[in-house]
Design goal:
Radius of gyration: 21 Å
CATH topology of the largest domain: FAD/NAD(P)-binding domain
Oligomer: single chain
Shape: globular
Helix content: 25-40%
Largest sheet: 5 strands, parallel
Strand content: 25-35%
CATH superfamily of the largest domain: FAD/NAD(P)-binding domain
CATH architecture of the largest domain: 3-Layer(bba) Sandwich
Distance between the termini: 37 Å
Structural class: alpha/beta
Number of helices: 10
């Protein structure tokens, strides 16, 4: 397999890069966090605020993090990339040592990282939050070159992909066809493709109302399906056609040159704009470190998030395998705090906090002043082998005619985004 990283991993300042090792505070326990997104930034800030005796280093290659949440609103033209981009000065102000470089390798036995710039970083405990990789070998015809014609726009930080897809949608011929290829589970942000369909439709309704969206899905059901389809019928009648796997919706080959999708039974579909969301795995660094299973995701202890394959490395966020919890920003933020609390306890020779509870709330924008949501509460299961949803803890927005609730949920979504990014970045 070949992979591309989501956040890729991480650059020391020139003076530090020249040194053979990255100096850390003498006498303090060393927590290193790799990856500066929803999981990693949350972990680093929470660690400094809650356990000031920890020496915390965050390693992240990019100087600004572009969020996956609200990226679809950029496609609708209601947000700009700079509005969903966040820097790390707030973490530095909290005392986090932020290093911008890529991680070239992990040595679990020596408890150290090697950075691409030449420095080494020692740790007592490592929290790894590298995100996803796109599996370029999983869909015939789709590789990095093809993504310049059929953009994926699915990796935060790759603003060029989002901008490319946005420009293609703006340039869509009158009455043209936008095609989406949606992968099978698991993948990051289960409702994400369907919010994307909605936001593209919102733009087309204003600027190209005769256009059509064909959404080819490798699944027969999806998150918040009834709510999305109700909204599509109400807001975008006749514009969106969702094609499930049972109706030959599984795309098995793409031809960017001919602008065609080919489905499982050989049917070829011509599109003017193609958005291909390929199958995914944990980021390359997790796989190269030997942490992942055969499916490409990292099994973890549900209490501490320590990788099953390596002592001292805790894997949070999208890279781990933790069903039934979704791969969402809220879950990454929630579980990051339990991972940090576990790290602190273990470094003190104590037992990790027992009976943790993990939360997920996922808002989706479907149209102007129209939001929907799903909620879940999760715990480690009794035998410690995995996770379980707490009975009667979850739920979704009610179906039916509830315009005021839809308007409020759109506002709640905006408030959630402001709150969680402040919790991450300060």
């Amino acid at each position: 397999m070949t992979f591309t990283t989501r956040r890729a991993l991480l650059g020391a300042a020139p003076a530090l890069m020249a040194a053979p090792a990255l100096a850390q505070n003498q006498g303090q326990a060393r927590l290193v966090v790799v990856g500066g997104g929803f999981g990693g930034a949350s972990a680093a800030r929470f660690a400094r605020m809650t356990y000031p005796w920890l020496d915390v280093t965050l390693i992240e290659p990019k100087t600004r993090f572009v969020t996956c949440p609200y990226g679809n609103l950029v496609l609708a033209g209601t947000r700009r990339l700079e509005q969903i981009s966040h820097g790390y000065d707030g973490l530095r102000a909290r005392g986090v040592n932020v290093v911008h470089d890529w991680v070239a390798g992990i040595d679990p036995a020596a408890r150290s990282l090697r950075l691409r710039g030449g420095a080494t970083v020692a740790y007592d405990r490592l929290i790894l939050s590298p995100g996803i990789a796109l599996r370029w070998d999983a869909l015939p015809g789709y590789d990095e070159a093809a993504s310049e014609i059929f953009p994926h726009a699915w990796v935060p930080g790759e603003g060029a992909q989002t901008t490319l897809l946005r420009r293609q949608i703006e340039a869509l011929p009158e009455g043209g066809v936008v095609g989406l290829a949606i992968p099978d589970n698991p993948f990051r942000c289960p409702p994400g493709p369907y919010e994307r369909i909605s936001m593209i439709a919102a733009h087309l309704k204003r600027h190209n109302p005769r256009a059509k969206i064909l959404a080819f899905d490798a699944k027969n059901a999806f998150s918040k399906q009834g709510l999305f389809q109700d909204a599509w019928g109400e807001l975008y009648p006749g514009m969106i056609e969702w094609v499930p796997a049972s109706q030959d919706g599984r795309i098995t080959r793409v031809d960017p040159g001919a602008r065609e999708f080919e489905s499982e039974f050989g049917t070829r579909h011509k599109v003017d704009v193609g958005n291909v969301i390929p199958p995914q795995s944990a980021a390359r660094i997790a796989i190269e470190a030997g942490l992942a299973n055969a499916g490409g995701w990292v099994p973890v202890d549900p209490l501490t998030f320590e990788a099953r394959q390596a002592t001292g490395i805790h894997v949070i966020g999208d890279a781990n395998v933790a069903p039934p919890m979704p791969k969402s920003g809220y879950v990454a933020n929630s579980t990051a705090k339990q991972a940090v609390a576990s790290v602190a306890a273990l470094l003190r020779g104590e037992a990790p906090p027992a009976a943790p509870v993990y939360f997920n709330t996922c808002y989706s924008h479907v149209g102007e002043d129209y939001g929907i949501s799903v909620v879940g509460v999760f715990r480690p299961n009794p035998d410690g082998s995995g996770f379980v949803e707490t009975p009667q803890s979850g739920g979704v927005s009610p179906r039916g005619n509830h315009p005021e609730q839809r308007r409020l949920e759109a506002l709640y979504a905006d408030a959630w985004y402001a709150s969680i990014t402040r919790d991450m970045f300060g």
